[in-house]
Amino acid sequence: CMVREYKFNVVMKNATRLCSTKPIVTVNGNFPGPTIVAREDDTVLVKVVNHVKYNVSIHWHGVRQLRTGWADGPAYITQCPIQPGRNYIYNFTLTGQRGTLWWHAHILWLRATVHGAIVILPKRGVPYPFPKPHKEVTVLLSEWWKSDVEAVINEALKSGSAPNVSDAHTINGHPGPLSSCPSQGGFKLPVESGKTYMLRLINAALNEELFFKIAGHKLTVVEVDAAYVKPFKTETVLIAPGQTTNVLLSAAHATGKYLVAASPFLDTPAILVDNKTATATVHYSGTLGSTATTLTVPPPRNATPVAANFTASLRSLNSKKYPARVPLKIDHSLFFTIGLGINPCATCVNGSRVVADINNVTFVMPTISLLQAHFFKIGGVFTDDFPGNPPVTYNFTGTQPANFQTNNGTRIYRLPYNSTVQLVLQDTGMIAPENHPLHLHGFNFFEVGRGLGNFNSKKDPKKFNLVDPVERNTIGVPSGGWTAIRFRADNPGVWFMHCHLEVHTTWGLKMAFIVDNGKGPNESLLPPPSDLPKC
Ligand code: C2O
Question: What is the ipTM of this complex?
Answer without folding.
Answer: 0.99
